[in-house]
């Protein structure tokens, strides 16, 4: 009798231990389950970067965000390229941007990355995109506030390169029932300095040019987007973008040599200003439950650029002759010589 009780006790304790071990394993499995949203998605015709789900896509601007997107690159900081495509056409919220290239890049540089929902790199554009077969599309989808209310962002940036370049941008989003409004405003100034050195020739004859380009810019820009949901199948929208750029006292200073001998110096002074206004009215209606839709767009672009430039070339032989004449006459004025140089 004692033996039976002992065996039963051993069996019961073993059963309890196994049950506890099984429960422990189940608990650990539940703790190990984590849900993560996919940041990058590959579809048949496009590559999608879900910016809103990326923890690293914060605290920067949209242009830098695009440069970090797979398949997109920028060599000069002024243009965007898609891998395997001749040109990249920018769309914003599925609507083609009619802004000139400089104004568009400046707008992207002043749009906070926090305002972006996702970026679509479309390598096989469909008929809804107005592009050539050799071109690709970068579609930037802005965030939309789904709840009634408002929010905004303010960004102040200062970049120290060869010159100091400050900028400020602000955005404001508002939604009330079926009406959604998004606005953006930016102002900044920057001066770029580029150095040049170009050589060509061989061991017996060599041409070389070197110098710099200082290009100061002041920029003001803004945009407004309005969307109104007529009903569950119909939507109408309005978009306005404006940019003003002023670039005065831009200087290109180049010195040319032949076989190590100074030949001439070329100085180009330029004043330019650019104005850009673009409007878009669009209407969209869903035609069935499968996602088919009919879209209509009316766009208007006003672009104006004024430029005034003076280009002068000073031969070094002439400068040397003038300097010698001044020295021989006993009269020397450094400011005159410097101006000629």
From TrEMBL:
Stretch forming the signal peptide: 1-18
Q: Key word Signal present in the record?
A: yes
Keyword set, alphabetical order: Signal
Which SUPFAM superfamilies does this UniProt record tie to the protein?
Porins (SSF56935)
Q: What is this protein called?
A: TonB-dependent receptor
What organism, scientifically named, is this protein from? Chryseobacterium endophyticum
């Amino acid at each position: 009798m004692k033996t039976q009780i002992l065996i039963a006790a051993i069996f019961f304790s073993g059963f309890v231990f196994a049950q506890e071990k099984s429960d422990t394993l189940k608990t650990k499995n539940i703790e190990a389950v984590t849900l993560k949203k996919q940041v990058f998605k590959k579809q048949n015709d496009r590559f999608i970067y879900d910016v809103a789900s990326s923890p690293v896509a914060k605290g920067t601007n949209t242009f830098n965000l695009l440069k970090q997107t797979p398949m997109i690159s920028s060599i000069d900081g002024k243009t965007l390229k898609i891998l395997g495509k001749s040109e990249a056409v920018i769309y914003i919220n599925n609507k083609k941007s009619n802004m000139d290239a400089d104004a568009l890049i400046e707008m992207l540089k002043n749009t906070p990355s926090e305002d972006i929902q996702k970026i679509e790199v479309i390598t096989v554009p469909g008929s809804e995109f107005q592009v050539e077969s050799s071109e690709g599309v970068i579609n930037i989808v802005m965030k939309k506030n789904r709840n009634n209310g408002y929010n905004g962002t303010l960004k102040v940036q200062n970049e120290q390169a060869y010159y100091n370049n400050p900028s400020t941008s602000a955005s404001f989003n508002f939604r009330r029932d079926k009406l959604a409004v998004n606005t953006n405003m930016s102002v900044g100034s920057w001066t770029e300095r580029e150095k040049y050195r170009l050589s060509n020739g061989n061991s017996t004859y060599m041409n070389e040019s070197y110098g710099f380009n200082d290009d100061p810019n002041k920029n003001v820009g803004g945009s407004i987007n309005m969307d109104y949901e007529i009903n569950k199948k119909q939507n109408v929208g309005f978009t306005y973008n404006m940019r003003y750029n002023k670039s005065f006292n831009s200087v290109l200073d180049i010195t040319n040599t032949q076989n190590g001998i100074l030949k001439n110096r070329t100085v180009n002074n330029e004043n330019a200003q650019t104005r850009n206004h673009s409007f878009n009215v669009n209407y969209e209606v869903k035609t069935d439950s499968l996602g088919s839709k009919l879209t209509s767009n009316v766009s208007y672009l006003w672009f104006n650029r004024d430029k005034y430039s003076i280009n002068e070339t000073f031969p070094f032989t002439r400068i040397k002759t003038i300097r010698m004449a001044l020295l021989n006459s006993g009269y020397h004025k450094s400011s005159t010589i410097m101006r000629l140089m």
